[in-house]
From TrEMBL:
<dbReference type="GO" id="GO:0005975">
    <property type="term" value="P:carbohydrate metabolic process"/>
</dbReference>
<dbReference type="GO" id="GO:0006032">
    <property type="term" value="P:chitin catabolic process"/>
</dbReference>
<dbReference type="InterPro" id="IPR017853">
    <property type="entry name" value="GH"/>
</dbReference>
<dbReference type="GO" id="GO:0008061">
    <property type="term" value="F:chitin binding"/>
</dbReference>
<dbReference type="GO" id="GO:0004568">
    <property type="term" value="F:chitinase activity"/>
</dbReference>
<protein>
    <recommendedName>
        <fullName>GH18 domain-containing protein</fullName>
    </recommendedName>
</protein>
<dbReference type="Pfam" id="PF00704">
    <property type="entry name" value="Glyco_hydro_18"/>
</dbReference>
<feature type="domain" description="GH18">
    <location>
        <begin position="1"/>
        <end position="203"/>
    </location>
</feature>
<dbReference type="InterPro" id="IPR029070">
    <property type="entry name" value="Chitinase_insertion_sf"/>
</dbReference>
<dbReference type="InterPro" id="IPR001223">
    <property type="entry name" value="Glyco_hydro18_cat"/>
</dbReference>
<dbReference type="GO" id="GO:0005576">
    <property type="term" value="C:extracellular region"/>
</dbReference>
<dbReference type="InterPro" id="IPR050314">
    <property type="entry name" value="Glycosyl_Hydrlase_18"/>
</dbReference>
């Protein structure tokens, strides 16, 4: 799609920065997955090997984008799956596509919890929710019976901040600040944004924060 629709070197000349959507790169099709996976996994085959944050940014670089202009986008919301069985709860577990997952009141839909909702569930309703980190993709998910939530939290955000810092990209933008935790984490407000901002001074002086 990049090759067919965009002249990246020409676009790059006229832009101060480019926001790169590093989320919603997976969908609710038939198995569970992380929509903002940072790195690829050994289990992936075919096009899935390229559908991750690291490879997406590299694809832009390979086509002539300037690294100092690429701003990684992270989501302050997640996705919810209704699992086909409570016995199969890991990544790539079968999904029950005939029933709607839990209602997410903040965004007024069934499948998209704001971080403040995911935080409330996983952090405040222990031990019902079991949180797990994916060591390959450096992202997380949590399960509660036949419910599964995938979302960014302080640990996964820290991995993305470190990736941007280490690789020398321009910075980070978020979608969006209103979905951050404001009544959670023992009273700590705006936890995700604070985690990003705390990593900003270690980045280059021309960092863009949106």
């Amino acid at each position: 799609m990049l090759d067919a629709g965009y002249d990246i070197p020409a676009i790059d000349r006229y832009l101060d920065w480019m926001n790169v959507i590093g989320y919603d790169i997976r969908g609710v099709w038939n198995t569970t997955d992380i929509p903002s996976v940072l790195h690829g996994r050994a289990i992936y085959r075919s096009i899935l090997t390229e559908l991750n944050v690291e490879q997406g940014l590299q694809a832009l670089l390979d086509r002539g984008a300037s690294k100092r202009k690429l701003v990684l986008g992270v989501a302050f919301y997640g996705r919810v799956y209704m699992l086909a069985s409570a016995d199969k709860t890991g990544l790539h577990a079968p999904i029950d596509i005939h029933n709607k997952p839990q209602w997410c009141a903040f965004l007024f839909r069934h499948d998209m919890p704001a971080y403040l909702e995911a935080c409330r569930n996983v952090e405040l309703l222990k031990p019902m929710w079991i949180r797990q980190i994916d060591k390959e993709g450096l992202c997380l998910y949590a399960t509660n019976g036949e419910d599964m939530e995938v979302y960014e939290d302080l640990e996964s955000i820290a991995h993305k901040v470190e990736f941007v810092r280490k690789e020398g990209y321009a910075g980070i933008m978020v979608m969006s600040c209103d979905k951050d935790a404001f009544i959670c984490l023992r009273g700590k407000n705006n936890a995700l944004l604070e985690k990003i901002n705390n990593g900003i001074p270690r980045l280059r002086n021309n960092l863009v924060v949106l």
